[in-house]
Amino acid sequence: MFTTIQRIQFNKQFFIFSALACLCLFPVISSPIALVLGFTLATLGLVPSDINTALITKKLLAYSIVGLGFGINLPQAIEVSSNNIGIIVCSIFSTLALGIGLTKALKIKPKMGHLIASGTAICGGSAIAAVAPAIDADADETSHALATIFILNSVALFVFPLVGHWLMMSQHDFGIWSAIAIHDTSSVVGAASVYGDEALQIATTLKLARALWIIPVAFISALMFKGDNKKIPVPLFILFYCVAIAVAYLFPQFDLLYQDIFMVSKRLLVLCLFLIGAGLTIKSIKSAGLRPMILGVILWVTISVSSLAYILLAM
């Protein structure tokens, strides 16, 4: 039974937690800020103990990924992918392969390392959100992977335009580079928009094309971590993600509705990051150590430098 003081304390926690959660559904809160807000509440002990944030997050992540499928322009994504198929395939699978090797070398939990590599290889938080349930990663592994990716994501937002101007890159080349080497779509858009309109158009289109690779990577990941099960776990939300892309392509007359669903899904993803942050504590961060961040930095620097060299020398 709750005492009067416990009830008051619980009501205070619930009110603050609910208010900030609702605020995450509005554009005033970005993805990194949502993660920080959730982490701050957890640190201050303001997360209601009877709210199962891990369970809620798992369901919302699946819904968010499906909704994002409505924002994929299939013909455009296929065209951009075919024009840049070499650098896309090499960057994705070399990053995943390097991630596997470094995860073993750094003695990081295999699923956590794979999530960090997936987020670096494809599209940051969205990739992690898709792969995590496919490999049955726990909340701790998912939260650490997301924290690593979003810290580096924030750095990229400011560093990439500076490097691009220093190297006097064209808008076309910068658009390709930012789409390949920056984790999340939001930061890709942010960095490219600062560089110029052409860079923004190229970067956005190519990044959304890379999002299609969530599908095979999620299935491959499910196969890799199937354990002793004879059956390969099929991440149903990935199938629904494919259905969403197909529906948007086959029935373009409802484009305005698809865009609304896409925008709502992006906000739900921000809410998920808030909930993930709410499950991330200083104790859990200390227990993981610096190794996940070291892995994230090595992978990010590798894909950034190698893709930049390819763009400058071969394009």
CA(first)-CA(last) distance: 69 Å
Structural class per helix/strand content? mainly alpha
* Uncertain residue ranges: none
Spell out the helices and strands N to C.
HHHHHHHHHHHHHHHH
Q: What gross morphology would you assign?
A: globular
Helicity, in percent?
A: over 70%
Number of helices: 16
Strand content: under 5%
Account of the protein in words:
The chain has one domain. The model has no long low-confidence stretch (mean pLDDT 81). The termini are far apart. 79% of the residues lie in helices and 0% in strands. The protein has helices at 4-23, 31-44, 53-68, 74-83, 85-105, 110-121, 125-134, 139-166, 171-181, 185-195, 197-211, 214-224, 236-250, 255-278, 282-288, 291-314. The protein has 16 helices and no strands.
Brief rundown of the structure:
The chain has 315 residues and is mainly alpha-helical.
Which features does this protein show?
315 residues, mainly alpha, 16 helices, globular, cell membrane
Helix/strand layout:
Layout: H1 4-23, H2 31-44, H3 53-68, H4 74-83, H5 85-105, H6 110-121, H7 125-134, H8 139-166, H9 171-181, H10 185-195, H11 197-211, H12 214-224, H13 236-250, H14 255-278, H15 282-288, H16 291-314
